[in-house]
Design goal:
Layout lengths: L3 H13 L14 E5 L14 H11 L4 E5 L22 H14 L2 H13 L3 E6 L8 H14 L3 E4 L3 H14 L3 E4 L13 H8 L5 E6 H6 L4 H8 L3 E6 L1 E2 L6 E2 L8 H11 L4 E4 L9 H17 L6
Parallel strand pairs: 1-2, 1-10, 2-3, 3-4, 4-5, 5-6, 6-7, 7-10
Antiparallel strand pairs: 8-9
Length: 311
């Protein structure tokens, strides 16, 4: 583990360190990126193209790869994002029906166009974060894979439950596409994907199921991210990088919590495993989300650049 003084040095260095272009940290080979959920608080106003907003945010962060959060490319119904006045009076049930219709009827060309726009901006969409819950029809689950392929994503990531994983499995196999299950910290519920045992339970359902390890949530559940990654790295496609405190503690600015971000990144560097490491901004922002994501990426770059003993 690193002392507070060493972590403080990393934080100071992060503010000064230049960002590294592309999605691979040049000196280490570690594949860094950003989960676009990090930009959920950017305004989505009438007349403003939300896709361009996302692309501009990623470009500003010099991020060459992302995990794309599905609600950020879907239509908004009845929410606070500038929907039509009549739509704002819709009941939750009506909103849900309209979203289902949108998912099933929107031409795949819409998603092809988004993928092309990201590609032209020099940003690869590694994963499409599409998370079925019990309200999803089978058609909606199936459609998510078609959307992901149209976007050019390599995999789907999903924050879901073991019950839902059983429903998702045949669609993953039909499309021959990896679904990486996102872990959370709710270890008390056996239906949640949170513990090594629950990850195994999901992967036993399909050879197309893998692990999207959130090292912050894993730490908050008092689990050892470094040991798990070392032992199960062939099963892990990507990490969510964030800092949380143990014992179900809060999300905090990087370096202030208990999550072994530095150790994890240096493990990836040392072993050269092809595991993506994506920033997920969760703590209360001190600046805007773009500036905070820049700080996180700089922290990661500094951790990978500064040597301490063996690297």
């Amino acid at each position: 583990m690193y002392s507070r003084r060493e972590l403080g040095t990393l934080m100071l260095g992060a503010f000064a360190a230049p960002l590294v272009g592309g999605f691979t940290h040049a000196a280490s080979g570690v594949r860094l990126g950003v989960h676009t959920y990090s930009f959920r608080n950017l305004p989505r106003a009438p007349g403003r193209d939300p896709i361009e907003t996302l692309i501009q945010a990623l470009v500003a962060c010099d991020a060459g790869e992302c995990e794309l959060f599905a609600p950020q490319v879907e239509a908004q119904f009845g929410g606070a994002h500038g929907g039509h006045h009549a739509m704002s009076r819709m009941s939750p049930q009506m909103v849900r029906r309209e979203l289902r219709k949108w998912r099933l009827r929107t031409p795949l060309g819409y998603f092809h166009t988004i993928g092309s726009r990201f590609q032209k901006a020099g940003i690869a969409i590694y994963a499409y974060n599409y998370s079925p819950n019990p309200s999803f029809s089978d058609e909606e689950i199936d459609r998510g894979f078609a959307m992901a392929k149209a976007l050019g994503a390599e995999i789907v990531t999903a924050s879901t439950t073991l019950d839902m994983a059983k429903r998702i499995a045949p669609f993953a196999e039909r499309h021959r596409m990896i679904v990486s299950m996102h872990g959370n910290s709710r270890v008390g519920d056996p239906n949640e994907v949170a513990t090594p045992r629950s990850f195994d339970a999901a992967m036993n359902m399909s050879p197309y199921f893998k692990v999207n390890l959130d090292i912050g949530d894993f730490t908050a559940a008092n689990l050892d991210a470094v040991s798990y990654i070392r032992e199960r790295h062939p099963d892990i496609t990507n990490l969510h990088l964030k800092d949380r405190q143990k014992n179900q503690g809060a999300n905090v600015p990087w370096g202030q919590g208990d999550t072994p971000i530095v150790e994890v990144l240096r493990l990836l560097k040392r072993e050269a495993w092809p595991i993506r490491a994506h920033v997920e901004l969760e703590y209360a922002e001190q600046a805007g989300p773009v500036d905070e994501v820049k700080k996180c990426l700089a922290y990661a770059n500094q951790a990978l650049t500064v040597s301490r003993g063996t690297t």
